[in-house]
């Protein structure tokens, strides 16, 4: 009985560390994939989602936050910074007017971004830290869980089809623009 509990604890610790490693390295992957997308758009003479000066600032902030999170330096603060950077960059892309995708694709893209922001908020709360010096921030953790819940609702709506998608997208659109 005790061996099974210890094994379960070890497995949970391993899963939490794996999730933390993946989440702290996400901004690097996000910058790389964005650069590839914008290079492809440059060949077609299309503008990137964000104006170019802001794009460099956004990617610089992402690499800075990812580097410090990867090295474990002030991980909570830089996870919060990465969440803020991702939220501001996504909002700038949304209001920039250069994103010409269908509604269902916008919902999928932005809901995934909301889920990643939720993951960063949970990481910023201190969840998953093995040697924790400060207690977890329950408000950041619950806010991150709400963001993950929004993502799951959007996934269900995109799976059900357009009838569920249109009211949700109209709600999100009116909330962000207003």
Query: What is the beta-strand fraction?
Result: under 5%
DSSP strand tally: 0
Helix content: over 70%
Question: If helices are DSSP runs of H or I spanning 4 or more residues, what is the number of helices?
Answer: 6
Termini Cα gap: 56 Å
Mean pLDDT: 81
- Shape label: globular
- The quaternary organization reads as single chain
- Rg, rounded, reads 18 Å
H and E order: HHHHHH
For the largest beta-sheet, the strand count, sense and barrel status come to:
none
- Number of individual domains: 1
Structural class: mainly alpha
Low-confidence stretches: none
Topology:
Blueprint: H1 2-43, H2 52-71, H3 75-96, H4 103-125, H5 138-160, H6 162-177
Helix pairs in contact: 1-2, 2-3, 3-4, 4-5, 5-6
Provide a descriptive summary of the structure in words.
The chain has one domain (15-177). α2 (52-71) packs antiparallel against α3. It starts with a helix and ends with a helix. It is mainly α. The chain has helices at 2-43, 52-71, 75-96, 103-125, 138-160, 162-177. The mean pLDDT is 81.
Considering the chains and any ligands shown, give keywords for the structure:
single chain, 178 residues, mainly alpha, globular
Question: Outline of this structure?
Answer:
Helix content is 82%, strand content 0%.
